[in-house]
Design brief:
With about 200 residues, this protein is mainly alpha-helical. It is built from 10 helices and 2 strands, in the order H-H-E-H-H-E-H-H-H-H-H-H. The chain has helices at about 5-10, 20-30, 45-50, 55, 65-70, 80-85, 105-120, 125-130, 155-160, 165-180, and strands at about 40, 60-65. Helix 5 (about 65-70) packs parallel to helix 7 (about 105-120), helix 6 crosses helix 7 and helix 9 packs antiparallel against helix 10 (about 165-180).
């Protein structure tokens, strides 16, 4: 592994020298014996790039990030670790959730968020939210940064509804729909046109 990769997780080549390839063990990890209603991860879209339907058998996913945006919109940030310290989930043992950005500690922290999300709403609702883009509670950038979507102008919303970021687009379109405005905003034509 490159030093850049090692610096993120502090896992050395020697730590994984005898580990099996993911494709050899993925199905056994992702499809354990017994009933399985859903898989869950914080920012599940990232995990789904490696935990494909081939390995999961098509089991649906709960994204605890997208769900947290809906259940706790008043919080200022929504990373796994920020939720941990903002919310201080009951029963979470600080040391077991460390070091951050390692599989077991991060899964442990995410499991506490998942438990609290399931106590706040239904499994079906979490799955539905997880299939949609993230509904951001506030504008993430620009002159309206930090404002809730209901506090910005229609023109600003229409501009955000053309944003490259799918979560920003979805959030702006959701507010436009709430206001009774058109839902589908035509994408802007690129300023450059074509290369040829």
């Amino acid at each position: 592994m490159t030093p850049d990769t090692i610096a993120v997780h502090h896992i050395l080549d020697s730590h994984v020298a005898d580990a099996p390839f993911w494709k050899e063990i993925a199905a056994s990890v992702l499809r354990p014996p017994g009933r399985l209603d859903a898989l869950a991860a914080h920012r599940a879209g990232f995990e789904q790039r490696y935990c494909t339907p081939r390995f999961t058998g098509g089991t649906p996913w709960i994204c605890t990030w997208k769900s947290a945006l809906r259940v706790w919109p008043e919080l200022p940030r929504f990373s796994n670790q920020m939720l941990r310290y903002q919310r201080m989930p009951e029963g979470l043992v600080h040391e077991i959730g460390l070091p951050a950005h390692r599989a077991m500690p991060d899964a442990y922290v995410t499991a506490h968020h998942l438990r609290d999300l399931l106590n706040a709403t239904s499994l079906d609702q979490l799955l539905a939210w997880s299939r949609e883009p993230g509904l951001l509670p506030r504008v993430p950038a620009g002159p309206d940064r930090g404002k809730t979507w209901d506090r910005i102008s229609d023109q600003a919303l229409e501009n955000f509804a053309r944003d490259r970021d799918v979560d920003v687009r979805f959030s702006a379109q959701t507010e436009l729909a709430r206001r009774g405005e058109r839902q589908e905003i035509a994408p802007l034509e690129p300023a450059q046109g074509t290369l040829l």
